[in-house]
Every structure is written in structure tokens, then in C-alpha cells.
Specification:
Blueprint (H helix, E strand, L loop, with lengths): L5 H11 L8 E4 L2 H7 L4 E4 L12 H4 L3
Length: 64
């Protein structure tokens, strides 16, 4: 397995581009959620909006 590098990340992003859609980041302001997490800020990446309905397409698709 190759070492992690910026070049490897860029190559993986190129390979994945035809298969994945960009998904939004949203900020959570719900006090009870923020309190449960123990942080003053919570950002969520909405990967369930992918065509497959999950983030799982990203992992296997990067294996060369």
C-alpha cells in the first residue's frame, strides 16, 4: 500500500469523480446534539445524499 500523500489523495479524487457526487457540509445548531457531542460546533457531511445512499462507495473505489 502506498504512503499517504497529497498526490495520492488527488489521484484518488480523480478516480472517484465519475462515481460520487459532491455532498454538502451543514452546521448543526441543535443544542441537545451539541451538548451530547461535547463541542460548541458540529458540522455534518451529508454522505447519505450519494447515489448509493452511503459513503461506502469512496473506500473500495480508491483501491488500485
Amino acid at each position: 500500500m502506498d504512503a499517504l500523500s497529497l498526490e495520492n489523495i488527488r489521484c484518488a479524487a480523480e478516480r472517484l469523480a465519475p462515481y460520487v457526487d459532491p455532498t454538502p457540509l451543514v452546521r448543526c445548531y441543535e443544542k441537545r446534539v451539541i451538548d451530547a457531542v461535547g463541542s460548541d460546533m458540529l458540522t455534518l457531511k451529508l454522505e447519505f445524499l450519494q447515489r448509493t445512499g452511503s459513503f461506502k462507495v469512496r473506500g473500495p473505489s480508491t483501491i488500485s
